[in-house]
Amino acid sequence: MITFYYNLAPNPMKVALFLEEAGLDYEAVPVDSRKGEQHAEAFKALNPNAKLPVIVDGDATVFDSNAILLYLAEKTGRFLPKPGDKARGEMLSWLMFVATGIGPYSGQAVHFRHFAPKSQDYAVERYDFEAERHWSIVDARLADRAYMLGADYSIVDMAVWGWAGRLPFVMGEAAWQKLPNVKRLLDAVSARPAAVRAEAIKERHSFKAEMDEDAKRHMFPATAKSAA
């Protein structure tokens, strides 16, 4: 059985989707980042970077959501092109694009738009611009194809789905007017039975809802340090 350490952020939800799509047997273990549980030594032994998600699969421990998606896809032989297929390179390129662009810029846009101390105008402008630029690339990619790699649903679509549902929070309420093809993909993936089951993981455990000063201290230690 796979042990899946998670919270309700976009990155763990991608992995929950794959686990449900592949029908893998797993135990979901909550790690509440607003309570600082990710900084416990036992958890950092699994991921020294103190981030979610992490899986433990027998002797293998894997962290970073996109690494986990690739690991599980290769383990099961599902939701990725075969070795030697030209789409394999496209899959790796777009998966890394989500890992290095979509996730980081969306996350920073959320941070500076909603949680950073005020008077951060340049940071807000920069990350808003980069988040929209990266998502516009995804939207253009989806303009003439059903999924990110064409006709076939893959781990790249799961990686995009994890963040896409948060786009109004990332970019504001006008996000879907700017990104209609991303919205179409989001709706298509969200309608899949596995996605419905993945969303239901939110009901298994309770997590701290308040983003109070204690939560910010745990989640944004640099901000807490600068305020000291």
TrEMBL record:
Keywords annotated in UniProt: Transferase
Gene3D superfamilies: 1.20.1050.10, Glutaredoxin (3.40.30.10)
Source species of the chain: Lichenibacterium minor
SUPFAM superfamilies: GST C-terminal domain-like (SSF47616), Thioredoxin-like (SSF52833)
Residue ranges occupied by any GST N-terminal domain in the UniProt entry: 1-80
Molecular function per GO: transferase activity
Lipid biosynthesis keyword on record: no
InterPro entries found in the cross-reference section: Glutathione-S-Trfase_C-like (IPR010987), Glutathione-S-Trfase_C_sf (IPR036282), Glutathione_S-Trfase (IPR040079), Glutathione_S-Trfase_N (IPR004045), Thioredoxin-like_sf (IPR036249)
Listed Pfam families: GST_C_2 (PF13410), GST_N (PF02798)
Record domain GST C-terminal: where: 84-211
Coiled coil segments of this chain: none
Protein name: Glutathione S-transferase family protein
Domain of life, source organism: Bacteria
PROSITE patterns listed in its UniProt record: GST_CTER (PS50405), GST_NTER (PS50404)
